[in-house]
Specification:
Oligomer: single chain
Strand content: 35-45%
Helix content: 10-25%
Distance between the termini: 105 Å
Mean pLDDT: 91
Shape: elongated
Strand order of the largest sheet: 7-8-5-4-3-6-9
Amino acid sequence: MKTNYSRIMVVIMLIVTVLSCSDDHPVEPDRTSRPGSISALRKVEIHDGLKFGETSIKGVVISDFSHGNFESEILAVQEAGKLSGILLELTNAINYESGEEIDINLDGATLHYVNGELRVKNLSAVNVAPTGNKIDITPHLSDIATIAAESQFWGPVLVAVEEVTFTAETGTIGGENTIDDDIVSAKLTVLESADFYNEKAPEGFAQVIGINRTENDVLKVYPRSMEDLALLITELKEDFENDTSTTYDNHNLNLRTGSWRLSGGITAGTTADLKFGSQSIRLRGDLNNELRDGILEMQFDLQGVKGVRLSHGIYPASAEVSNVNPTTLDLEISYDQGSTYEFVASFTIDINSEVLITEEVTLDTADPDQNVRFRLVNSSVPFANNRKPRISIDDVIFLY
């Protein structure tokens, strides 16, 4: 019994000793973090004492310093195949090319929020190394509202938005200007160091590609170059400069907008012909010749055309300028790829004008996205020989 009592006392004394030592020398928990991906890195909880151990995180550079629209000391990196990105503060950031895969060792680095953006700071340049692989990151197509809502979770990734209006403080793209998709807006950010800073401001863009960043709760999109900004087409001009013809018989012209059928007309560039460039269309027509019916006709369709603007005038030969009958030009539209045409408008040619006169027609179509094509018809009363007066036509512009 005495022996058992002694053993119990020894155990109690050992426990007291251990507890006493524990109070004098507390054991610190291991707060070292070793995320294995950018996605995991973005989920790391920031707290006092956070430190990173050795890691091997793969990422693809999406910032492009060759055009100057990114801070020179910051590298934007995205995880391949994921909507997850991170900003790295790096002294040699400009040495990396867009699409280059890198391996990131976070040993000794820290994680902070700067103006609402998550950044890796204190990262040694020797801890970032290219893998030798080139990877194309496909921009994530979305709308501004979704990007704004998800940006805090995604971080900086390559995004794309379509059909946005553009409102500039000045007449150029440079600065922080508003893009709007008719639901919400964001700031298109072009730094003064960008080589496209002074590009003329358009009314809108068909597509904007860039790196999304949320700074102080404001969504900003940084395009990498002018190639990331697809201009919204507001008009399409045919100037009739890209092909020539000297025969009045029916034939096709290969022009900048596509193929046009010209019957009873030629491309004309004499000093007498009214024109804006080096030549215009001289359209006549002959009732005695079915190969010369006085028609200039598109051989292709367009979509979304809201109006047509064109310039016309008289060919100043004696018969034309002394003609007592009206010289007229009709605009017609087809909704079935040229099988049938409907009348749109008629233009009366001023036989006394020495310059081209420009007129515009607004289309009233039930479906603005319907495919259409147009033709111009010399509808003038013919002379006694059944030939029609010659009309000069230039710069047919389709309005969107």
